[in-house]
């Protein structure tokens, strides 16, 4: 199902394309293996700031012309930043694909970071940070990274700090890009009804003049995890809690069974164990979920819930009780079958989104140099045994290995 084609230009930039005949929309983007973990200590928030500044001027376009180029034909231009990736991407009618390709190339490789725009966008990002801090259910999940990855770049907030964002200069952007941007760690990925030959022809037209840059960047691996419990008083009306611990890296063979375990525990289904035990049975929360994020050298389990302050201890105990069940009692054959079917259905539905598919293909090739087909993943899921899940639960769901971050209400 995931038949895709790859062409490598003489300068090392890879072009990845999947042809989908039944769509009129072309999704594409440059995905770069650069993220907030690659920032220097005095440049926190720079990767995310670059994401903003890419739309603020190139060698031949001002901000208005960048923003209007695709919007005027009904398309969309956007970007995102994570701990390990930056992506500039677009969605347009297929007849405007070349216009989209050229614009994405321009903002990725030819941004000029006008100083006047840096000052303007600095204020926008500081407002974004203030808005995010006013949303405790989002802020606590990000702050939990600093608890688990204390002292490591993975623990830094993607947005940076008020101090760091306020001090970044044009030279910081240029230095960061020169240190991290490399043709062997970026690619152009597209999903559309266009033939591969046309995509390659456009790539040769717009990317051939990009100079050859190959850098070997070493990321500092995360080690020496120490569990912590942190409680912070805030002027909020509800208590919020995140608990979790480091987990398997994205290349670990245990990643898929662990993902299934986390999905069973607190995935998007209303039948997750945490939702049934804490919300449906006791009515203590509105939202409770579990997530598993993977990085090249580690991973992270997070379990989040919000509840009344007086119910914080009880709710935490119920969550720990569910973790204990997974460590002590293997799934029955029907439970295991249901967990597998649910996960396979969710993965298949996720692939219905061509935009999501484009990003998944690009990220997977950057990280693993290949893309697993749904059938391959399904085969791995089908081969999971109850004992595998029990072993994993006892390896990474031990209570003594968990960290806790609590936001508790305080009157002001």
From TrEMBL:
<dbReference type="InterPro" id="IPR007863">
    <property type="entry name" value="Peptidase_M16_C"/>
</dbReference>
<dbReference type="InterPro" id="IPR011765">
    <property type="entry name" value="Pept_M16_N"/>
</dbReference>
<dbReference type="Pfam" id="PF00675">
    <property type="entry name" value="Peptidase_M16"/>
</dbReference>
<dbReference type="InterPro" id="IPR050361">
    <property type="entry name" value="MPP/UQCRC_Complex"/>
</dbReference>
<feature type="domain" description="Peptidase M16 N-terminal">
    <location>
        <begin position="15"/>
        <end position="161"/>
    </location>
</feature>
<comment type="similarity">
    <text>Belongs to the peptidase M16 family.</text>
</comment>
<dbReference type="InterPro" id="IPR011249">
    <property type="entry name" value="Metalloenz_LuxS/M16"/>
</dbReference>
<feature type="domain" description="Peptidase M16 C-terminal">
    <location>
        <begin position="167"/>
        <end position="343"/>
    </location>
</feature>
<dbReference type="Pfam" id="PF05193">
    <property type="entry name" value="Peptidase_M16_C"/>
</dbReference>
<protein>
    <submittedName>
        <fullName>Insulinase family protein</fullName>
    </submittedName>
</protein>
